[in-house]
Amino acid sequence: xxxxxxxxxxxAARLLARTTTAQRNAAVEAMAEELSLDRESxxxxxxxxxRLGREAGLTPALLDRLLLNEQRLEAIANDVxxxxxxxxxxxxxxxxxxxxxxxxxxxxxxxxxxVGVIYEARPNVTADVAALCIKAGSxxxxxxxxxxxxxxxxxxxxxxxxxxxxxxxxxxxxxxxxPDRELVRGLLTLDRYVDMIIPRGGSGLHAFxxxxxxxxxxxxxxxxxxxxxxHTAPLDQVVPIIVNAKVQRPSVCNSLETLLIERSAAAxxxxxxxxxxxxxxxxxxxxxxxxxILREAGNSxxxxxxxxxxxxxxxxxxxxxxxxVVDGLDQALEHIDQYGTDHSETILSQDPxxxxxxxxxxDSAVVYANSSTRFTDGSQxxxxxxxxxxxxxxxxxxxMALRELTSYKWIVRGAGxxxx
Amino acid sequence: xxxxxxxxxxxAARLLARTTTAQRNAAVEAMAEELSLDRESxxxxxxxxxRLGREAGLTPALLDRLLLNEQRLEAIANDVxxxxxxxxxxxxxxxxxxxxxxxxxxxxxxxxxxVGVIYEARPNVTADVAALCIKAGSxxxxxxxxxxxxxxxxxxxxxxxxxxxxxxxxxxxxxxxxPDRELVRGLLTLDRYVDMIIPRGGSGLHAFxxxxxxxxxxxxxxxxxxxxxxHTAPLDQVVPIIVNAKVQRPSVCNSLETLLIERSAAAxxxxxxxxxxxxxxxxxxxxxxxxxILREAGNSxxxxxxxxxxxxxxxxxxxxxxxxVVDGLDQALEHIDQYGTDHSETILSQDPxxxxxxxxxxDSAVVYANSSTRFTDGSQxxxxxxxxxxxxxxxxxxxMALRELTSYKWIVRGAGxxxx
Lengths: 420, 420
Fold this sequence. Notes:
Two copies of one chain form a homodimer. The first copy, chain A, is of the alpha/beta class. In chain A, 43% of the residues lie in helices and 21% in strands.
């Protein structure tokens, strides 16, 4: 079954690679329309997923993630529409020249081919990923979490109809709708047809994909983000940035997990920071030094806990923050090196030397100075949308959008050229 | 042992990432010098490899590949020197801007980190790869073929001494000198420390790496290159290009393996092509149509053979060429799609429409018009050197050199920025 899907996807990809920007934009527009038109069957499929999810005892948080309603579906359709108007990277010539021997050379962006995306119980990912891949000229094989089997199938049916409507091959978008986990393994080794695997989920999924795949995998998405605050950082910036990075949306990968504070700034800054975070009910897991300062500054309502060793390097994805006092920049860099996940880190400082060292030496996808880490996001950084956040170093790093869904080819034009 | 090597490599990579261009250039210069200074011990180690190789009954071709002498060692040192003067990609800012909210963003090239290179019995690869990786600011772990165990160890010893001489960490260059094959498997799964694997060898090695590695692998190097000749191609270009592509160096991956000729051009061109290739003793493995034309044109000294099915898609790496008559461009594209390895293909034609379709639709790393395929090479295409030729679509495609040995990071500067 996978073999046949792969063949169909590759054939569809070849056709897609020959389309114009206008054709692919029309396809994405049609996808948005079909999502609205097909509202009833999508919502009724989702209602079935929700019913089964409740019976299976899924948590309220997971059920909420599963849920589609008219408003959410319209938001998904609007996100798809946004993709249609983004600039098209396909065909862009990004280097060109003439060699001394007269050969004319260009490097031109071309579609990747076939992308495999493995995701969890988020129905919206189905449409987001489909729109980005089709826009970038690639076919996509989707495998969603078993909790959204019916919703994903209904969404894909609508999206495939849109492709047919504009005379593009429906097989450019295929869904593995059988929940058998062996099929994930099969997709990960379908290297004759699939050019790239994008896992969208937790660290377990990423590790499984890395270990199993014979196809390049984009790993990422796990964010243990750090902030380092030194004694030159102004209080009126520190408090809003740390609160924003921790509190605004604690469940996402670019939220803050660990605060490192320079010893000489701790006595001044920590009490104010503690008070501000306390207002948002943030639990602070503190090393002995910061715990002593915060215990003295706070009251019994503050959520103060002595940090355990594994609190550093942990992705809490909740209103919990690990806190540690460090000697200075060097110790902060060492800590980040040891515990970070190469995602996003920020320095709050007015010392230009410290800022430049931090930006140079922290080996993360996105490094910030005097900013919240919450901007590590394709839309926030000006890409318009994102298909994943890569924390590996090959191909693309940080937010990945349309351009990162392309490859390139060398085009060489001669006039009878032979090599000496 | 590998764990410790990985740790040391990562530490060395972190130090390398903080060096200046001048420091890394000095290191590469010193590497070239030490190769010359250490001539005696390198050549005597190589003599031992050669003796064991002869005892083991290696073929003369393989023994020649193994052999180092003063002249070859000087050539290797010169190649290393060439790397020192190439432009440094590290630190290059290739995109920058200010977002509407005032965040200042740049994307800056940074070293990859640690590269693992697995190669076969070519001593020169040891020095080439070391020079490119160090220049690009990355540490490298080498694993050479067992036939060059002693040569590689002697080369690495000299190269490490060069690093120490310029106060860079010798562990930026390490060699797995134990021939146990389990260590290759170990290197391929050393994902805590190694950022990229480059196999340099045959298709078996590439497949093994893809299947075993939990680290991104650059696959490539296998070249079943095609030329398509249509009826508009001028004879005075066709003959030299086809002869050059097949004959100049048949053992390399960018040499021609299959000639596809448009039916309406076959009767005119094939006899002349056959005669020219015959002068170079090229064996032609022909489909029935081309065989009939060539048999009629040639004489008993021509090496004409009826093609077997597996002659198409085969990398002969020898003076053998598969020949097929096709209806026209569409059939040529189908043939390449079915049998090609996405490496290098060329069209010989004066028809602009056919040329553009070929360049657009052939999904290979390098596509040519009216040129030999032999230019798919880092030096030939203006990169100055190459570490590999990628035929996959992620990260880099075609010749890979210094820039393709880098990653990038996002640098974001704010002034108290928080996300709404």
